[in-house]
Structure to design on (797 residues):
């Protein structure tokens, strides 16, 4: 009923190939976008923006990046944290070397730098597969964070070894640095995520995406039908790293403000991997759902005992949170191994008939 | 099959609804002093005694005096696991509730909060940690790090080594190793050590230990090979006990190993057992639970069964430091109230209190802390105060103070510090604010 598609005729090829072929989806997405751009900055307070929405957007971007590599091209990677670090450190180096450069270009340049690094670490994927590749990307994780820690050049010889987002403006509005309001930083993150998500969606449903999926499903068969593994895999590594790099730059410039390599350790790689797995491998929507789940669940679990008037000691609370969080991940994976995106698809199908199923 | 999608729906609704409800608490005559703690994770051995010290001191004051000047002290712990991103989240959550002062208890988190402090007008007290350069109040008016900074500490430690060697000039040609946690915290002492190495002609060996520091075999093998005359350790959490155990394992003489004040707690030496005997560290407070303030804590808190931790842990090194930290904060607020009246103070007024904090020996005696720590005075320009440190030694059961108060080399530290403050301040786009000299 809610999702009735009867009567929606497609009379053009363009209509048939639209990202959202169903009118209800178009409405929903437009409404969500309007709310996100216009409503949220007016309504949400700083805690919501700073602690929930901004990290959600940034992690969504990182999850899209990893999803391109792991979900679409089938190359398991544990180096996401390191690639995000490359993005963050290169953005820092670029913007301190050229302070006049618009910060959006800085983000994009840092993404390109990360793509280059990703290509280098993607090379082994031509020879090794699956878990063995995961171990090779693990090397990237440890090597790159070690490098940033070891070489003071990357932090402009700051004795503390931290990089700090300097104040930068776009059209006279403070975007980064301590003076930037949460609203502005949220809007910048949102605009970048929307633009890059649309680009990713179009990429994965086009020729490139199909060749990625062919490689993922069976690489030898893909090679036989004329897909070049070198180019396809390298492209996946490059574009995935591009996304992760921008997410890493945003993590410092729009969210944390300053950080050291600790912020990009192996646990970040796992976190993004969990987002992709829980959200749904091979789904752009799933990247958002997974990021929302992982970002919000710990905050929710921290606040629930207090809300129901149960003052727990923080250590007990933290341990309960860890257990519940782990339990929920297992639960979701058992109930729906294809992730939250698949759950949403099932929901949509049910809603076609609801409330009058056969 | 309907249940299949109703569940995530409920979860989604709950997710959205829960953080919406802001924690509305009655704001009567209270002082809200939150503490960022880490009772879980690899840094819990260091985090727990600190958290307990704060909780017990506030509970004791509330029970004994009804708080401070009639204001009940309300505290809240926020768990950070010593992780910077969780610390930032805690800060955002806590700042809505208008804390009078914030104690981050992590150098990494302090670095994150320093740029936010002037924007939110938040007084941050990083007691003996955080960014050394913040001691220059001309550039960092909202951040205080008295009684001492890492740089002052490093200089006092070198001075102590000089004393042990029979004069600072004897350091020439000697090797001193610095084993540090590879984080902003651990790196903080390096610039001063490098300066002093040049000045006194000793060779400095810097050895980083990656977090959390459970793996230090390679580090201590390097020490064994280089065989430095002294090893200075800047560790935290689980790294400390591993360092001491590894030092013992490679046969490094324990009495030439000196920890900084975060590397000198009971939890650090007890796991190493007998081998830790003779290990020394710097200290800001006298160890033990024999002071009147402890008697009050036992009487008003532990005997009522309200203690935050086990009774026998009262008086541990880090516990005592937390007591002094809490006392400093409350005395600063008391100073501000003495000037502006007993009312809810604005953050500028509280900052004034910190800038004019002057705790005399007489005041310490009134607080039940006579000879427990040193008198201190802070000024607008000097947020480090005039603190000094002592050296404590582990005798296998207890810490014993083995030195007098040691004055840091202020002539070396302060100029460097002002230079660094200008650099760091300019990075953040600050301008220098001249402090009122008459104050």
């Amino acid at each position: 009923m809610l999702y009735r598609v009867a009567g929606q005729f497609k009379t053009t090829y363009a209509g048939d190939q639209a990202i959202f072929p169903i009118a209800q989806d178009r409405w929903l997405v437009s409404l969500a976008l309007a709310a996100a751009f216009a409503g949220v900055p007016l309504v949400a307070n700083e805690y919501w923006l700073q602690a929930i929405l901004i990290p959600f957007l940034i992690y969504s971007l990182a999850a899209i990046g990893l999803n391109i590599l792991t979900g679409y091209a089938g190359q398991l990677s544990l180096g996401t944290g390191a690639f995000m670090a490359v993005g963050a450190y290169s953005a820092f180096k670029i913007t301190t070397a050229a302070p006049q450069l618009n910060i959006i270009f800085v983000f994009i340049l840092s993404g390109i730098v990360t793509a280059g690094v990703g290509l280098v670490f993607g090379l082994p994927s031509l020879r090794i597969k699956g878990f063995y590749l995961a171990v090779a990307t693990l090397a990237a994780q440890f090597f790159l964070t070690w490098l940033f820690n070891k070489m003071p050049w990357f932090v402009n010889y700051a004795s503390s070894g931290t990089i700090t987002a300097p104040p930068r403006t776009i059209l006279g509005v403070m975007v980064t640095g301590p003076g930037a309001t949460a609203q502005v930083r949220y809007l910048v993150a949102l605009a970048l995520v929307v633009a890059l998500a649309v680009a990713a969606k179009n990429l994965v449903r086009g020729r490139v995406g199909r060749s990625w999926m062919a490689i993922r499903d069976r690489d030898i068969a893909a090679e036989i039908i004329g897909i070049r593994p070198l180019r396809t895999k390298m492209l996946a590594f490059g574009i995935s790293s591009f996304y992760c790099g921008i997410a890493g730059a945003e993590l410092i410039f729009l969210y944390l403000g300053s950080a050291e390599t600790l912020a990009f350790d192996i646990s970040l790689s796992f976190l993004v991997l969990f987002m992709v797995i829980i959200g749904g491998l091979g789904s752009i929507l799933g990247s958002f759902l997974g990021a929302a789940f992982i970002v919000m669940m710990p905050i929710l679990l921290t606040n629930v005992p207090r809300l129901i008037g149960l003052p727990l000691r923080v250590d007990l609370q933290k341990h309960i949170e860890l257990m519940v969080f782990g339990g929920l991940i297992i639960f979701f994976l058992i109930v729906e191994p294809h992730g939250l995106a698949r759950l949403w698809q099932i929901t949509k199908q049910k809603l076609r008939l609801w409330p009058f199923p056969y | 099959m309907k249940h299949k999608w109703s569940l995530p729906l409920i979860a989604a609704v709950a997710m959205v609804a829960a953080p919406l409800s802001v924690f509305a608490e009655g704001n009567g005559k209270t002082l809200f002093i939150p503490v960022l703690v880490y009772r879980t994770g690899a840094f819990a051995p260091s985090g727990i005694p600190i958290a307990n010290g704060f909780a017990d001191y506030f509970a004791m004051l509330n029970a004994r005096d009804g708080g401070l000047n009639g204001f009940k002290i309300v505290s809240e712990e926020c768990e950070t696991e010593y992780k910077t991103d969780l610390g930032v989240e805690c800060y955002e959550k806590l700042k809505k509730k208008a804390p009078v002062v914030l104690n981050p208890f992590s150098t990494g988190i302090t670095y994150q909060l320093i740029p936010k402090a002037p924007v939110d007008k938040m007084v941050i007290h990083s007691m003996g940690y955080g960014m050394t350069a913040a001691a220059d109040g001309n550039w960092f008016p909202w951040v205080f790090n008295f009684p001492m900074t890492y740089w002052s500490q490093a200089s006092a430690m070198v001075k102590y080594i000089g004393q042990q060697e029979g004069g600072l000039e004897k350091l020439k040609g000697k090797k001193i190793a610095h084993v540090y946690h590879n984080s902003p915290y651990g790196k903080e002492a390096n610039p001063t050590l490098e300066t002093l190495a040049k000045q006194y002609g000793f060779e400095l060996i810097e050895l980083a230990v990656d977090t959390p520091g459970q793996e230090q075999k390679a580090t201590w093998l390097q020490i064994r090979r280089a065989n430095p005359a002294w090893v200075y350790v800047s560790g935290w959490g689980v790294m400390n006990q591993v360092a001491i155990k590894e030092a013992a394992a490679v046969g490094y003489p324990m009495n030439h190993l000196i920890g900084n004040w975060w590397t000198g707690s009971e939890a650090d030496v007890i796991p190493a057992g007998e081998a830790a005997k003779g290990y020394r560290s710097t200290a800001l407070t006298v160890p033990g639970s024999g002071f009147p303030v402890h008697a009050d804590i036992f009487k008003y808190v532990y005997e009522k069964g309200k203690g935050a931790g086990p009774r026998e842990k009262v008086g541990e090194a880090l516990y005592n430091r937390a007591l002094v930290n809490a006392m400093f904060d409350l005395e600063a607020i008391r100073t501000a109230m003495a000037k502006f009246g007993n009312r809810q103070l604005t953050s500028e007024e509280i900052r004034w209190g910190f800038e004019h904090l002057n705790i005399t020996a007489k005041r310490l005696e009134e607080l039940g802390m006579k000879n427990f720590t040193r008198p201190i005075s802070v000024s607008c320009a000097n947020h480090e105060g005039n603190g000094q440190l002592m050296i404590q030694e582990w005798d296998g059961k207890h810490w014993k103070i083995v030195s007098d108060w040691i004055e840091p080399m202020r002539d070396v530290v302060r100029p460097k510090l002002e230079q660094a403050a200008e650099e760091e301040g300019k990075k953040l786009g600050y301008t220098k604010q001249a402090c009122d000299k008459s104050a």
User: Anything to note?
Assistant: Chain A is about 70% helix and 5% strand. The mean pLDDT of chain A is 90. The first strand of chain A starts at residue 163 and ends at 164. The first helix of chain A runs from residue 13 to 16.
